[in-house]
Specification:
The structure holds three protein chains of three kinds.
Chain A lengths: L2 E14 L2 E14 L3 E5 L6 H8 L8 E10 L2 E2 L5 H7 L4 E4 L3 H4 L6 H12 L5 H14 L5 H4 L9 H13 L5 E5 L7 H18 L2 E6 L2 H5 L4 E6 L2 E7 H6 L4 H8 L49 E3 L5 E3 L11
Parallel strand pairs in A: 3-8, 3-9, 6-7, 7-8
Antiparallel strand pairs in A: 1-2, 1-4, 4-5, 9-10, 10-12, 11-12
Chain B lengths: L1 H25 L1 H18 L1 H4 L31 H37 L1 H15 L3 H11 L4 H28 L2 H8 L4 H37 L11 H11 L5 H28 L7
Chain C lengths: L1 H9 L1 H18 L13 H10 L6 H13 L14 H36 L4 H14 L3 H15 L15 H27 L2 H8 L4 H13 L1 H24 L5 H11 L2 H29 L1 H9 L1
Helix pairs in contact in C: 2-13, 5-6, 5-8, 5-11, 5-13, 6-8, 7-8, 7-11, 8-10, 8-11, 9-10, 11-12, 11-13, 12-13, 13-14
């Protein structure tokens, strides 16, 4: 199994009048062909910014990618000329966004929005051919009457249907990597499940790699092969889905799992993590989670890089605290 | 519960205004505009004492002279001191601007808040009426009125104010409709507070921000309208002068006495500029969402 | 869509009725008539004149007579220019005003929207501040200020144009520039704000993520939504330009409808004033309708929303 995307020490900072925001502060991750990697964290933890950085979609200024490498096949996305990156966007790497209401242009017919990417990347595809493929893509994502509905405007679709249109739009040029930024957050719970199932089926069919960005561990459960938990611009724990769900080893991950409603647990078991994430322009010394951490120790606030603790070949956490074998969490 | 809500509301209100004030101070052009207006307004108010000549005093022997140390802005063809006349023009123009805006404010806020607060059928009818009024060529009406009733300056205030109230009413209504849905109005209503009191003590204070911005942008409009009418010879009458009449006089004389045109033009332009900068600044300060970047 | 247009067309009727009635009665309520001149007109001639124009009838009868004529599209004879009808005068002078207005509008749109796009492409840089400072100046320069200044510079000092008059084609240039400059400034501000509003929209990010080239994003995604506010301002702008033409035509001695209107108001030429106001009211309402339809085409949500209300 080869790596499709290899991100190494990516750093994206925002230089604003109110100070320096270290939105993404040295994250590394690997996405394998046909697999799903989930980036999990609260809003503001840097998960969206890191992915937007890969595609060169960070507003510059104030944002700037200050370091790192990101190899997609053998090309470093972070150091690619604009033109070449533009040629990859939508063609090899596609992205879908949280709110399908605002992510689709309300002033344009869906047909134009579906085909324009294809036509921008391939001069040889005729209007008719592009339209045919767009209808096919709509049918593929389960939109009935695609032939008629392709000429509608986005507001004439329901929320779930709109997200299906977004997915059709992203997959029309058969990309290798799909970045899905909170794809189900704006949708009803029942629709959420449908969309996630759709993504899973399409992935199998097209051997698609997916990076799933979400704040909701519940969304991740059935989808992800590997999970990276982000906090304040850093990946604090990574592991397979089983690692994260059954043997979480970073106090933050444990907290996240504890705040998740479960069917099998009794009432009153929901524990929110106390406090709020730190202001990203005034990150404390040491571990940014220290103020909210139930296991906090003295050295956590030292001005040293945090130790990376390996639990297995697949699982590691950025923390002083070491979980003992069999310790109840 | 309601007490608490009211206190929270008040605190939010206070910090909101303080925030807005801070933002306004950061906007250099708005501050400069504001200072300019203060100076301009004081000069206008104090005109009879500052100006060294009575504004209607003619000196036919002197005729038109270029600006010098006696007549800072020169004199017109009748030998009247231009500095004096421009200051007196400022009195008229600013007075019209303020009074006519006050008229438009009174009508607009009343109409808009009643329409928005009542809702339903009343709202529907009032808005339909507004729609029809919007289509009327008001400036032409004012021209007709000014012609027919003589150039009465009080009529001018009312007529100009009456042109401007439509948009004000619409803005206020929009604000009221959205505010009406908020909890504290429900709270007040559930305690049996009457309609009038709800409008007066809850809705109007909250609509204030938007209204202030719109007022700042209305004043230059009214000044412009007045100057426009005076320019056509339909505004204030000789020997009184407003910037419009001065510009109109200047057009006739510009080939020989260009200062007669340039000075009143510059006065009008600078005042409008200052008002527009202040208006922009206030809008940015009071409604940060309305203007990104 | 058809329903929307019909509804807007229907509103013209009450508008015209109100305009006609209001203007009619206001003009008759006041002392002084069209035949009050400095010269004393003999009683008998005055009687004859009044009879000829039915001014001796009761007011209600005059009103009904006028309304009846109006329904047939007849605006009546002019009091001051006895040999001509109001229809003739409007037919003769309006094309002149329309030409200047159209030229001014085209100039304002090209300069204004161009400056707006230019400024919005690099917000908060010199490229933005410079045109926007000019736009700020522009909205503070009414036509009766900029007109004489243009005349002073381009006609009197540089002698590129005639000072006034309406004899050659280039006589339209200064009036059109005068009329358009303030609106160019408004258009620049509106289009800049509209475009910057779009730049922050999620769908622009989507378009970028699709790998579209920048020019296509600007043309297809940014401008369409970004210029909506400019389009909706076109209606008021056209109406205001008509008002502005009163001044511009007076300054440059252009024989257009605006100048006739001012003169007829000063002369108390009842029928001409009434005719001009009615004509302009219809024109303004129609312009607004056209703009609204264009807006509805650009913004697919509008036709839907207006069905409900």
């Amino acid at each position: 199994m080869t790596a499709l995307l290899q991100v190494d020490e990516l750093k994206t900072y925002f230089f604003t009048r109110d100070g320096l925001f270290k939105s993404v502060d040295g994250i590394s991750l690997t996405v394998k062909k046909g697999k799903t990697l989930a980036l999990v964290g609260e809003s503001g933890s840097g998960k969206s910014v890191s992915m937007l950085s890969l595609l060169g979609l960070i507003p510059q200024p104030p944002g700037r990618i200050v370091g790192g490498k990101a190899f997609f096949h053998d090309r470093d996305l972070l150091h690619l000329p604009d033109r070449e990156l533009q040629a990859l966007r939508g063609e090899k790497i596609a992205m879908i966004f949280q709110d399908p209401m605002t992510s689709l242009n309300p002033y344009l017919r869906v047909s134009i929005q579906l085909t324009e990417g294809l036509r921008a990347h391939h001069n040889e595809i005729s209007k008719k051919e592009a339209r045919r493929r767009a209808i096919e893509a709509l049918e593929h994502v389960g939109i009935p009457d695609a032939k008629q509905r392709i000429d509608r405007y986005p507001h004439e679709f329901s929320g779930g249907m709109r997200q299906r249109v977004m997915i059709a739009m992203a997959l029309i040029s058969r990309p290798e990597l799909l970045i899905a930024d909170e794809p189900t957050t704006a949708l009803d719970v029942t629709i959420q499940a449908q969309i996630l199932n759709l993504l899973k089926n399409l992935q199998k069919e097209m051997n698609l790699s997916i990076i799933l960005i979400t704040h909701d561990l519940g969304v991740v459960a059935g989808m992800a092969d590997e999970i990276c938990v982000m906090y304040a611009g850093k990946i604090v724990e990574r592991g397979t889905a089983d690692d994260i769900f059954y043997t979480p080893s970073h106090p933050y991950t444990i907290g996240l799992l504890g705040s998740m409603p479960r069917l099998d647990s009794g009432k009153g078991d929901l524990k929110a993590i106390p406090g709020l994430p730190p202001d990203p322009s005034r990150l404390p010394k040491g571990c940014p989670f220290a103020d909210r951490c139930p296991k906090v120790m003295r050295q956590c606030r030292d001005d040293h890089p945090l130790p990376l603790r390996k639990y297995s070949s697949t699982q590691e956490a950025l923390c002083y605290w070491e979980k003992k074998e069999g310790e109840k969490t | 519960m309601i007490m608490k809500a009211a206190v929270v509301e008040a605190e939010k209100g206070r910090s909101l205004w303080q925030d807005a004030f801070q933002r306004l101070l950061k906007n250099k052009m708005a501050v400069i505009g504001f200072c300019y207006l203060i100076v301009q307004a004081s000069l206008a108010v104090l005109a009879p004492w500052i100006a060294s000549f009575p504004f209607e005093e003619t000196d036919l022997l002197l005729g038109a002279v270029a600006p010098d140390s006696v007549h800072y802005f020169g004199t017109d063809a009748l030998g009247r001191d231009m500095f004096t006349r421009v200051l007196h023009g400022a009195r008229i123009s600013l007075m019209v601007g303020i009074l006519a805006t006050a008229v438009s404010l009174a009508i607009g806020v009343l109409y808009g808040s009643i329409s928005g607060y009542m809702g339903g059928r009343v709202d529907n009818i009032m808005m339909r009426l507004l729609e029809i009024l919007y289509a009327l060529p008001f400036t032409f009406f004012v021209i007709i009125l000014m012609v027919l009733f003589g150039r009465n300056i009080y009529l001018l205030f009312i007529a100009l104010g009456a042109i401007q109230w439509l948009t004000m009413a619409r803005i206020v209504r929009g604000q009221v409709v959205s505010l009406k849905k908020m909890e504290y109005v429900d709270a007040a209503r559930s305690m049996g507070v009457g309609h009038v009191r709800i409008i007066a003590s809850h809705l109007i204070p909250n609509v204030l921000g938007t209204v202030i911005v719109y007022v700042t942008l209305t004043v230059p409009n009214v000044i412009l309208e007045e100057a426009f009418l005076s320019f056509l010879g339909l505004g204030v009458q000789e020997p009184m002068a407003s910037w419009g009449t001065l510009i109109s006089d200047g057009v006739g004389a510009m080939q020989t006495y260009p200062w007669m045109l340039i000075i009143p033009c510059a006065s009008l332009m600078l005042t409008l500029l200052a008002l527009n900068f202040l208006g922009d600044g206030l809008r940015d300060a009071l409604d940060p969402q309305a203007s990104k970047d | 869509m058809t329903k929307f247009i019909l509804k807007r067309l229907l509103i013209i009727i009450p508008v015209l009725w109100i305009v006609a009635t209001l203007t009619f009665f206001v003009m008759r309520m006041t002392p002084g008539g069209p035949f009050d001149t400095d010269r004393k007109v003999p009683e008998e001639i005055l009687k004859n004149l009044e009879a000829k124009y039915h001014l001796d009838e009761p007011l209600a009868a005059q009103y009904l007579r006028y309304m009846g004529m109006l329904l047939q599209g007849d605006l009546g004879p002019s009091f001051r220019y006895p040999s001509r009808t109001v229809n003739e005068i409007i037919a003769e002078t309006f094309p002149v005003s329309a030409l200047i207005g159209l030229l001014g509008l085209i100039y304002a749109l090209i300069l204004g929207v161009g400056a707006g796009i230019f400024a919005a492409s690099k917000p908060n840089t010199k490229r933005d501040f410079l045109p926007m400072t000019f736009a700020m100046l522009g909205i503070s320069l009414p036509s009766f200020v900029i007109g004489p200044l243009f005349m002073l510079v381009f006609a009197i000092n540089l002698e590129w144009f005639n000072v006034a008059g309406w004899t050659e084609a280039k006589d339209a240039v200064l009036p059109a520039l005068t009329l358009g400059t303030m609106y160019a400034a408004y258009f620049a501000r509106l289009s800049r704000a509209g475009i910057l509003d779009m730049v922050h929209q999620d769908f622009i990010r989507t378009a970028k993520a699709k790998g579209l080239p920048g020019w296509l994003i600007m043309l297809r995604h940014t401008l369409k939504g970004g210029l909506l506010s400019t389009v909706s301002f076109l209606g008021p702008a056209v109406a205001a330009m008509l008002t502005g033409s009163l001044v511009v035509e007076t300054i440059f001695s252009v024989p257009g409808l605006g100048r006739f209107f001012v003169q007829s108001a000063l002369n108390r030429d009842y029928t001409l004033v009434l005719g001009c106001v009615l004509f302009l009211a219809v024109f303004i309402v129609l312009m607004n309708l056209i703009v609204d339809i264009a807006y509805a085409f650009m913004n697919p949500k509008v036709s839907y929303d207006s069905n409900g209300t």
